[in-house]
Write a structure and sequence with these properties.
Layout lengths: L1 E6 L4 E10 L4 H13 L4 E12 L1 H16 L3 E5 L4 H9 L7 E2 L2 H11 L1
Parallel strand pairs: 2-3, 3-4, 4-5
Antiparallel strand pairs: 1-2
Helix pairs in contact: 1-2
Length: about 120
């Protein structure tokens, strides 16, 4: 797994995950999320369009990250294309906890419409 980031502004950051998002990714994912929240970002957009596999541990981290952001009046959004990852998010109902979008533009627009 590789994670890269793109700062949109002082409140919004996009974290892009490439590869397998599984138990082996825990340390880096947690470090990145804690760093973003502690740096003051209140909208973390997680782009998982290039994730090839996601396991139950990663699904749990997504929900925990959303809860952490909620505690600081923040939120997370997911960017997911059609495929196995989207199917897993639908089956597990993670999308009920975290808004799911198809593009970065949709996720950014939705954030500003709610502000």
């Amino acid at each position: 797994m590789v994670i890269s980031e793109q700062q949109v502004n002082n409140e919004v950051i996009i974290e892009t995950i490439v590869g397998r998002f599984d138990q082996n990714a825990r340390q880096e994912y947690k470090w990145r999320m804690d760093l973003a929240i502690n740096a003051g970002y209140r909208h973390v957009i997680l782009d998982v369009t290039e994730v090839t596999f996601i396991d139950s541990a990663a699904l749990g981290w997504l929900v925990l990250s959303q809860r952490k952001l909620n505690r600081v009046q923040g939120r997370m959004s997911l960017i997911v294309q059609d495929g196995i990852v989207r199917d897993i998010l639908n089956i597990t109902e993670v999308g009920d906890w975290i808004p799911v979008f198809r593009t970065q533009q949709e996720a950014l627009k939705a954030k500003w419409e709610k502000s």
